[in-house]
Amino acid sequence: MSQNQSQSQLPSQNGIDPDAHTVASPPHLPGMVGSARPTIELESVSKWYGDIVAVSEVSFGVGPGVTGLLGPNGAGKSTTLKMMAGLQAPSSGKVTIEGQPARGRPAAYRNLGLVSEQEVVYPFLSGREFVRLNAQLQKVKPLDAAVERAIDIVDMRSAADRKVGGYSKGMRQRIKVAGALVHDPQVILMDEPLNGTDPVQRAQLIKLIRELGAVGKTVVVSSHVLVEVERFAENIIVIINGKLAAAGDFRAIRDKIDAHDHEVRIKASNPRRLASVLIGQPAVQSVRIDAQDRIIAATNDVRTFYRIVPLAAQREQIRLFEIQPTDESLTSVFSYLVEK
């Protein structure tokens, strides 16, 4: 496919390109996330640095659509993404993209976009110059049209001529995404792209990630926040301590997680009044007030709990400021998923 042809595959600023092709779904493959044929495959992949094992015997496949790569900080997900991108070679095992080695093939990089967690931007360049540099490195033609389209996709036109060094963290994230998409790759790897973004920027990036998956691109997005990934990924891979904890449909894994007892933190205008109301609910096991005057509630039915809290607050005319699980860390998720 030529660069001119592939440019039409990018999602438009207002939605999905209606001319984008759909991807057929062949039979389910062992170790596959989802049902489509895998674009990226890891087979018994390990990576170690001296005596430190970062990734250990990880095997999975990723096909078209959006896949969330979940893991707490230090779990090995950034190392896994770098091996997918061909930036690092596995110490053992094999990483392939469309059946070919991910590392050492410059032609493969033409079809891959990477949004690194590290600040790989030149502060003295403007946003437009940064995106243009990426386009030039990828030998994109027509150059100017591709640059402007990528800038529009991340809604950065108003700041495109400002120096990247003066951008906020969220703006730098968005311009990095533009640089990764300017050559319209079919494989897109994003390492914690939502870090540092405000709610509006986060919503825009989540919408873009969904659109990229909907037009048939293979998108892998790493995150350490479970509820964040739930907003854009149908499939997830969970890596804890360098090992594969789970891989598959997000809803099935979420059902297993929700079946466990949970602890939820609530900030409200009248926490003691709300706590007294909640303790009488069948789904609530215990309620206490912590040192910051927040409600800490234990529940054995988290889905019912999240329904009754707003209703109880509305009935008692209490304002809710935050409802946040305290045990939604990926370490907790790991213990749920590997439970016998």
From TrEMBL:
Signal peptide (UniProt feature, chain positions): none
Annotated keywords: ATP-binding, Nucleotide-binding, Transport
Any one GO molecular function term: ATP hydrolysis activity
Chain intervals for the UniProt region annotation (Disordered): 1-35
Keyword field contains ATP-binding: yes
Similarity annotation: Belongs to the ABC transporter superfamily.
Record has Transport as a keyword: yes
Cross-referenced PROSITE patterns: ABC_TRANSPORTER_1, ABC_TRANSPORTER_2
Comp. bias regions, Low complexity: 1-14
Domain ABC transporter, chain residue ranges per copy: 40-266
Protein name per the record: Efflux ABC transporter, ATP-binding protein
Gene3D superfamilies linked: P-loop containing nucleotide triphosphate hydrolases (3.40.50.300)
CDD domains given in the database record: ABC_DR_subfamily_A
